[in-house]
Specification:
The chain has a single domain, classed as Vaccinia Virus protein VP39 (Rossmann fold, 3-Layer(aba) Sandwich), CATH 3.40.50. It is built from 11 helices and 11 strands. The strands form 2 sheets. Strands 6-5-4-7-8-11-10 form a 7-stranded mixed sheet, with helices on both faces. Strands 1-2-3-9 form a 4-stranded antiparallel sheet, with no helix packed on it. α9 crosses α11. 41% of the residues are buried.
Length: 318
């Protein structure tokens, strides 16, 4: 079983489907905070009876964010082995070629939503053209300051509340974030307003598909990330939300999802009481496991199968 978490009380909020507004839903999966053990609660994802969207209900409130996102949260730390860090940098640096294709060179403005300590903005600066103007936004003041320390403009705000005045962006990038927010439809509306006509909204988020989702869907799937993921999308649901908010979907791609495989196995073994030394082996930065699952997901994607990670590129029409 997972280690006993502190007896913290959350301000749980009853909610409804943010995509269709229905309050009718059936339980789909449940589990605890396997990764950080921040709270003792058992959380449940429900499936909307109206549109099949998957969402956490009840979920933590905004006031609980400081509890469920601990100071050692993976997105705020570099950490890990140097080999994994180099491979990750090389892979993510390859994304910049895609962004250059989408936005072009020249004086373009790009906004990284959920910028954290500025790690990905640094990749854009290192691999992209010097003419790009790079900014970030994060709700956490401490990590936003780390981003500023790297030389970037970093705004402390939720994107829903962000008002840059007359400034507009040629691309808004949201990597593994839209699943964390309470109202992703409202975020799509705000991003639409932040973009120049023809500007790109680049979204990466878990996908309700893939072998790992099918095998671990009852409780241990790594992308449940209890209690920090609040909305999980199929490709169809994500594309529908974007088009409903005025975007034109330009491209959908399925990406490797090595961490989901490893964390799913970690969660299952932890929950079943396996020895700690074995559970620790299934760390999301284990190079051996990364290689195995990278190969598996790469092969599935090349053969046209969906994986449990997706990228959707949408544009604000001209």
């Amino acid at each position: 079983m997972p280690p006993s978490p502190p007896q913290t009380t959350l301000s749980l909020v009853e909610t409804r489907c943010v995509l269709c507004g229905s309050d009718r839903a059936e339980p789909f999966s449940s589990g605890v905070d396997f990764e950080y053990a921040t709270v003792p609660d058992v959380f449940t994802f429900v499936r909307c009876s109206g549109c099949d969207h998957l969402y956490l209900n009840p979920r933590p409130s905004r006031d609980d964010l400081g509890t469920i996102y601990p100071s050692n949260y993976y997105a705020w730390e570099e950490g890990g082995s140097s080999l994994v860090a180099r491979l990750r940098r090389r892979w993510e640096g390859g994304k910049v070629a895609l962004y250059r294709e989408l936005v072009g060179d020249g004086p373009r403005r790009l906004l990284d939503v959920g910028c954290g300590n500025g790690r990905f903005l640094s990749l854009l600066r290192d691999f992209g053209p010097d003419s790009w103007e790079l900014e970030g936004i994060d709700f956490d003041p401490a990590v936003a300051q780390k981003c500023r320390d790297r030389g970037f403009a970093a705004h402390v705000s939720r994107v829903e509340d962000f008002d840059p005045g007359d400034r507009r962006y040629d691309a808004v990038i949201m990597l593994q974030l839209i699943e964390h927010v309470e109202d992703p439809a409202a975020i799509c509306e705000r991003v639409f307003a932040l973009l120049e006509p023809g500007g790109c909204f680049i979204v990466e988020t878990p996908n309700l598909a893939g072998l790992d989702f099918r095998w671990f869907r009852r409780s241990h799937w790594g992308h449940y990330h209890f209690p920090r993921h609040w909305n999980l999308f199929s490709t169809r649901a994500l594309e529908r939300m974007l088009t409903d908010k005025g975007f034109e979907v330009a491209r959908t791609e399925y990406l490797i999802s090595t961490s989901a495989w490893t964390i799913s196995l970690h969660n299952a073994l932890l929950d079943r009481g396996w020895p700690d030394r074995i559970v620790r082996f299934f760390h999301f930065q284990n190079p051996l496991l990364l290689g195995i699952f990278l190969t598996l997901d790469w092969a599935r994607a090349r053969l046209g199968f969906e994986t449990s990670n997706q990228r959707v590129i949408a544009r604000r029409p001209l």
